[in-house]
Amino acid sequence: MTNFQKLLFSSLLFICAKTAIADPKMDTAVFAGGCFWGVDAVFKHVKGVNQVVSGYAGGATSDPTYSMVSSGRSGHAESVMVTYDPQVVSYKKLLAVFFKVAHDPTELNRQGPDWGTQYRSAVFYSNAEQHKLALGEIQSLTKGNAFQKPIVTEVTPLSHFYPAEGYHQNYLASHMNQPYIVVNDLPKIGLLKKTFPDLYIQPYPQ
To answer: Domain 3-195: which CATH class?
Structure first.
């Protein structure tokens, strides 16, 4: 894929995401929890989710590329933008899926075999209600001793979300037999089905 094709694809993804956001029935959430391949796949199996886009958030560099983000120089984290119907699934439920299924919120600047600030755990909130709910979820999980180690998830305002290159989108569905996916990401889908059976659906085509 040429640089022009990558730019065109990313632009189309951004337009699609903006279109989904413009739907008054839909809302958005942005999460970072390690490699975005697995986080993307988890939320694609959640009832009420309309669209998931892998991308980059939390850094100061404009229009970051994967190579820039993966080097740790851009300050961004691999993230996903989840567009969802709040009448079907609440933001609070999405937070529960994020903390209990999509990643391990006690790992600082890493997830599994991946190390660096680009793999940090973060909730990027877009309004005061999301901020309040994210902090409340962390407090509730901490009080309930949900994890053996402290939660290290950042809760920070969303300044911008940049869609990742086309080959990262819906990655798991196209690489089901890749060893990294088999070991690190496919188990999350099973955990979602076990932990939140009322939310689990078969993934929609993207």
So the answer is: alpha beta
Q: What pTM, to 2 d.p., does this model score?
A: 0.88
Catalytic residue among 35, 42, 77, 189: 35
CA-based max dimension of the chain = 50
Domains of the chain: which residue ranges? 3-195
Question: What long-range pairs does 150-154 form, CB within 8 A, spacing at least 24?
Answer: 150/106, 151/99, 151/105, 151/106, 151/121, 152/105, 152/106, 152/107, 152/108, 152/121, 153/99, 153/105, 153/121, 153/122, 153/123, 154/58, 154/120, 154/121, 154/122, 154/123
Q: Is 35 a catalytic residue?
A: yes
pLDDT tens, residue by residue, 138-189: 999 999 999 999 999 999 999 999 999 999 999 999 999 999 999 999 999 9
